[in-house]
Amino acid sequence: MSHMTHVVALPGDIEPDKLQARLDEAMSRFDENLEMPLHRDISVYAETYAAQLAKAKASNRDNWTEGLTDDQIVEQWNGQATFDADGWPLTTSNPDGHWDYWRVGGRWAGAWVLKPDADNGPLQAGDNWDAPPAPEHDRIATDCARKNAIEAESITPTYSWLDLDGQWHTKWIGPTREEAIGNGPMGDTSHWERNDDELHAEFLTFLAALPADTWLIHIDYHS
Predict the structure, then answer these.
(1) d(C-alpha 215, C-alpha 222), whole Å
(2) What is the rounded distance in angstroms from the CA atom of residue 178 to the CA atom of residue 210?
(3) Mean pLDDT per segment of 10 residues, for the chain of length 223 residues?
């Protein structure tokens, strides 16, 4: 579980007093706690009923499966009791989930710098630990402004970002299926994330293509 930096791009025609609601709406789709209608688990961690039963019985230390039906064994093995006709587990978890909570600025509050005489945006980090550090110069730090109001060099690549089409881009790749179900080596995990140079190039391309009046919001999310 970690904190990640994230940028959300929203259309420039959104009125400032509507920006919070639009940000909440854009981020809501990616809530890890969002329950979905029952559907097949398509994650790399999903295993069929038969595979789970075989693993559970093979792990029968202290004869814990004794007296249990196959269904009870599988349910106790991983808490999953519902499967489709092909034996794949069903779930209500959100396949697009990326965060369990988020906040504007957060641990990286005030990461961006406004251009001289530019207007700040309406969404900024709160008080207490969210507060931006005291500036070392007379420039204004920000967590939300239009693209053309922010000094370009202060917008450094983040771990992930949400583009104007509502698509989530991220450094995270995750384990291979073999690793996820315990059949692969679990040594070096560097391949679970994208190469920094590749990711940074993609982020800068995304940023350069945005219209000048695009709203940019810097977010700290936890996953």
Answers:
(1) 22
(2) 39
(3) 93 98 98 93 90 88 87 87 91 94 93 93 73 59 96 96 98 87 73 93 98 98 95
